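On clarity, I found the account of how folds are encoded harder to follow than it need be. What matters is that the chain and its backbone geometry are given together, residue for residue. The format is easy to grasp once an entry is in front of the reader. For illustration, here is how one protein appears when written out as sequence plus structure tokens.
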Amino acid sequence: MFQSDTVPNDLDIIFICDANNIQQLGNISLNDFTSQKKPIIIIDHHEEVEQSDEITHSIINIETSTAEMIGKMYEELEITLEPIIATFLLTGILFDTRRFIYRTASTFDTVQFLINSGGDYNEALAILQKESSDSEKIAKLKGATRTIIHKEGTDIYAFTHISSYESSLARALIGLGASFAVVLAVPSENEYRISMRSTKSFAEGNNISLGTLANVISTKFEGTGGGHQTAAGINFKKQKEFPKNKDEIVQMLLKMMLKEIKKK
């Protein structure tokens, strides 16, 4: 495994898993690899977005998890799995299905295959149950105190900002009672991230997918965005027109997203 921002150009093929475009790889550069026109294949479960020319092929199924898709591939191709890889895939399935709340007809078959391949189910559970660090707890508490709450009908909107752990805070706000939670993260001076979560009833009641909403909003900021019906994210660079005050940015995002949601 490489530990740099540049992918070695002596590879024959690259698989991008659980991300629907090259831009979501962050600082990892594929320039040397793509210049040789080598194949790049995406395996993903997020809503499909327009692909860049460098992508050779994509395997996308929004009804399942990427971990389950890969597990099925191993099974169908009759490839022997290392126990640690089987355990990691079990962890991914448990996380994305929310402990089998959102499962497919074949999820348990894939889980059984992974266990038979040496995957440690108890270890997978233990990985997900690890207690949050003190820094994450403090960051989430600070973010919660800054939350702007807006009510439309029976829907409760919760918008806030934080330096990191944005997805964790967004999930926590839904747990606290929000119908739709948006958390802006500003980890560095020029980098912005947005994590979005909603209840299923909010998405269905407003006839909206957060993955689609994230894609629409990201284009306004010349960034990248996508996700699922009830979970999505956006990455973009600092915008010149943004106010300096983060609370004002959050207010701006609330108005922008309300406008898009009401179009539905």
